[in-house]
Design goal:
It is a single chain. By secondary structure, this protein is of the alpha/beta class. The chain is about 25% helix and about 15% strand. It has helices at about 55, 70-75, 90-100, 105-110, 130-135, 215-225, 260-265, 270-275, 290-315, 345-350, 375-380, 400-405, 480-500, 500-505, 510; strands at about 35-40, 80, 140-145, 185-190, 200, 205-210, 240-245, 320-325, 355, 365, 415-420, 435-440, 445-450, 460-465. The strands form 2 sheets. Strands 6-5-4-3-7-1-8-9-2-10 form a 10-stranded mixed sheet, with helices on both faces. Helix 6 (about 215-225) packs parallel to helix 9 (about 290-315). The termini are far apart.
Length: about 525
Amino acid sequence: MNNLKRYAIPAIGLAAVSCGGPGQQENQDQQHPNVIYILPDQFRNQALNFWNEPEYQQQVNWQADPVHTPNLDRFADESVVFANACSNFPLSSPYRGIFLSGMYPERSGIVLNCMEERPGSELRQDATCISDVFKAQGYSCGYIGKLHADFPTKNNPQRPGTYVDERHPVWDAYTPAERRHGFDYWYSYGTFDEHKNPHYWDKDGNRYDPKEYSVDHETDKAIAYLRNEHGERMDGQPFLMVLAYNPPHSPYRSMNDCMEEDYAYYKDMGLDELYVRENADTTMKKALAARYYFANVTGVDRNFGRLMKELEDLGLDDNTIVVFTADHGETMCSHGIDEPKNNIYTEAFTVPFMIRYPGKIRHRVEKTLFSAIDIMPTMLSLAGFSAEIPESCEGRDIAPMLLENGEKCDIPQSALYIKNVNGKRDEDGLVRSFFPVARGIRTAQYSMSIQIDPDCNIKDVKLFNDVDDPYQLYNIDYRQNPDLFDELCDLLRAKLEEANDVWFREGYMDRLKY
């Protein structure tokens, strides 16, 4: 295991305080570890510099973005790094439903991105979530940052009977206590895209408008949580802390969207330097966004370093599982499309997933197809609660593989891709159903998605050999390669059945019209 004591804290940020208060060394004799889950939004796997290093480069056959991520690079050297972690539904709300509940969208309740026009899409209040389980096992549970898992209602704590968002349709939401699923420390919001003008509600419904870069501010709050400065958690109890940043999610248009010190790394770079992926179209209007997107990547990295340094200074690092991941990626001009996510392209469908557990799991690069659906059972098992994994969990527990303890586990051989869109609107203009427009599968060699219309006519098939064509430049014609298409369709059918997906229940695969 590499030396963990090497994260450099920047000069700016939370004012220094004594490290002798609550929190220091308090968990070293605990049987169960603390868990920190760090979740920036729209952070693509390719935006990590370490993928260009020889150890990592030999596991992938593409070039990393030209990003400055020294703290995450160090963390990778201490972690299991997944080269093929997948977001089953690469969109903010559906992913969060999967992560929190361990269930696919139809069971989690979040079948579409949560907003005012979609009353049928929100996290089920009766779901047993990962935080519910940790709380039941005596953990303090804290949530900081973006949630985006609620249907907005007129429950504004400051102005009862109104929405918290004056825009229409409403996207932002306040999460009342009964919908927090065991999180007893709360500093969160629904979704709001002003990186330097964020807002939050605490556990009592008080609103805060700090007027500063959200990643800096949320990291301050996370550090205070680690220090237990104001009784954020119970002394002597292990803790689960979820830190959900919004950046590098859009907007990424100007200096209003990032910090100057992070932007400085990219301000003088030309488009040919910023875009190293062979599939990028730098003639797109969006092309200049890369500087601001990468600046936010570096802003996340800078604050990640601050957090890891604090964890070490408090003596909590040896008994804390730390995960760094994302809900989905960002195409950023790849394939010439404007849609940054919600597709099976590698830039959107694969995500970072690094997990460090000192003394328990050894550093390596892992090529297993680890999916969002597998996170909840695996994390509970790593913390020692395999017997408490709810029967509702639909993923695989791969903790034995990570721990290398001789126990067998069911290793995923493929990952399911899901895309839903709005169903028909009712007389009030509300969307109360969804249409399962596309399903697909990723294997060790291939990615395939099938898009249909309501009559099951095939509208589009994307089929790529990710080994020979890592930038997915050449869409294999499924009609000219029927054996390969049939083989992948068989694998997709099996995955749909395993997930009890609507495509399986209603026989979509057998109704396809070519």
